[in-house]
Design brief:
64% of the residues lie in helices and 0% in strands. It is elongated, with a radius of gyration of 21 Å.
């Protein structure tokens, strides 16, 4: 993929390279189409979060039950994350990132 640096003049947008926008399709898009795409995007994000949570747990070599005990989260929550029913947020999301990048340090801090 080629990276192109473009300086944008706020007065005129004529200096911008042409984009890959299908103007006919864009004009035909309605609110229902946008809502449907947002729903699909949310579902995809949930599945990405589920895969991440599952990958972190498996890299640690722990079962769902062992993992739930180690990070002090209910087993049901772990299952919901991994099945894509719920998404880890806030501190749980940060903990998963730390467990992914520095598992030994994170697990010893949790002990």
């Amino acid at each position: 993929m080629k990276t192109v640096n473009v300086k944008i003049d706020p007065v005129t947008l004529a200096g911008l390279p042409p984009g890959r926008v299908n103007k006919n399709r864009l004009d035909a898009t309605n609110e229902k189409d946008i809502a449907l795409q947002m729903t699909k995007d949310d579902e995809e994000a949930m599945q990405d979060a589920a895969k991440f949570a599952r990958r972190v747990r498996r890299r640690l070599g722990l079962s769902q039950l062992e993992f739930s005990h180690r990070i002090d989260v209910s087993l049901e929550t772990i299952r919901n994350w991994e099945q894509g029913k719920r998404r880890p947020t806030g501190a749980a999301k940060a903990l998963l990132k730390v467990l992914d990048k520095a598992p030994e340090a994170a697990l010893s801090a949790l002990a």
